[in-house]
Amino acid sequence: MKQLPWMSLGALALAVAGVAPASAQQKSVAVTAIVEHPALDSVRDGVQAALKEAGFEAGKNLKWQYQSAQGNTGTAAQIARKFVGDKPDAIVAIATPSAQAVIASTKTVPVVFSAVTDPVAAKLVKNWEPSHNNVTGVSDLLALDKQMDLVKQVVPGAKRVGVVYNPGEANSVVVVKQLQALLPKLGMTLVEAAAPRSVDVSSAARSLIGKVDVIYTSTDNNVVSAYEALVKVGQEAKIPLVASDTDSVKRGAIAAFGINYRDLGEQTGRMVARILKGEKPGDIKPEVSTKMELFVNPGAAEKQGVKLSEALIKSAAQVVQ
């Protein structure tokens, strides 16, 4: 009879041993984005889907948390500090401002950036080689010559290209500088309009009326989060809008030859899964999304005063009705 307590403890030990491996497999991923809009939301959802595919499911063996900075860089810094303090197995930072905030807050917690146009210019990494520190990620860098080819297909003879952007976002400044260098070679000029906040997008777009033949929108987060305001100006002033992200076509841009941000998120999620399985972020080379798709919106084209060629419509991966 005196052995029963010992046997009970033994049984308890076996039970604990049986639970231990599952507990040891529990991983945690914290995700932050500078703002919520369809493209960045698609990245977040793609990350989660890829992690599930790799065997890491929220609510089972994965602790998943997500916070948006709602377009505020100060809030992004607060979220970064909070997440670093939580010591997750990886932090996913979506868009340049959030990535900069997280990387400024930690040198030890693995950080995977996503939807960052130029991580080198944004000083997230020194180059496109493995960082040998705690940072890696996936870029949404676009070939601007192909973007301008699309502009010419939508608006043949376009000479003056307008761009609305946030001069405080490194992501957007890089694109503007590249356009300043590229457009003169194509016989075109760039007309800039600054929108430091999302609420400035409408007035910035209106400042371009009469000055441009087309407005090209990059993945500037202020602009994309307020895209409907830009579309309203485009329709009223008959200024065609050509975007760099396909989600904006669904919201009123005429066309975009861009990245599928759900795919970008899944690519990012596969990278995070490698880290959760033991790889060091500093050993993983930053990647660029290579899957490009053409979306067109003939209805938006009509409202903005242009008619798309049948050849362009037929070549699209998706025609938005």
TrEMBL record:
Residues 1-24 form the signal peptide. The keyword Nucleotidyltransferase does not apply. It comes from the Bacteria. InterPro entries: ABC_transpt-TYRBP-like, Peripla_BP_I. Keywords: Signal. This is ABC transporter substrate-binding protein. The lineage of its organism: Bacteria, Pseudomonadati, Pseudomonadota, Betaproteobacteria, Burkholderiales.
